[in-house]
Amino acid sequence: TELMTSLNDLDARVTATHTTKQILITATGRLLTTGHAAPVTGDIRYQVDYVIGEDGMEIRAQVTADSSHVEALRFVLPVVSRPSEPVDLVKPGEVRIAKPKGHVTIATDAAGGFAAVSRERVFNLVPGFLSLPLVIPMKPGLMVKMRITGTTSA
Fold this sequence. Notes:
Elements: E1 13-18, E2 22-30, E3 44-53, E4 56-65, E5 73-80, E6 87-91, E7 94-99, E8 102-108, E9 122-124, E10 129-138, E11 144-152
Antiparallel strand pairs: 1-2, 2-3, 3-4, 4-11, 5-10, 6-7, 7-8, 8-11, 9-10
């Protein structure tokens, strides 16, 4: 099977709205091949909402597909993290990363939690940082939510 990604969708749309308490950024588009083509089994559309508030950020992601033959859908959340920062899998749906002045906690409501969490970092070209890729398996029509919060130490 060929890899499908949102990175190749030149027609993707991003909108932003805000209130005094939060910012909502919504990205919509299609998963495409590296050649900018739709899968032969039919369109796979996505919507990702980023809700940024004073106490953290929630990410809501959902895909819809024209075909029931969609397998191995994954949301990959790159979290900026140095290799020296310890990663703790608190439970299948919660990861904590130690930072120099606190912790970042990422939690998901996905049924199986995060896929196997690697301690390896990858270089993310945009915005140009080393990142810990957190992978969340997805199914068409089912929304997954991720919550990112931080704590500081004295």
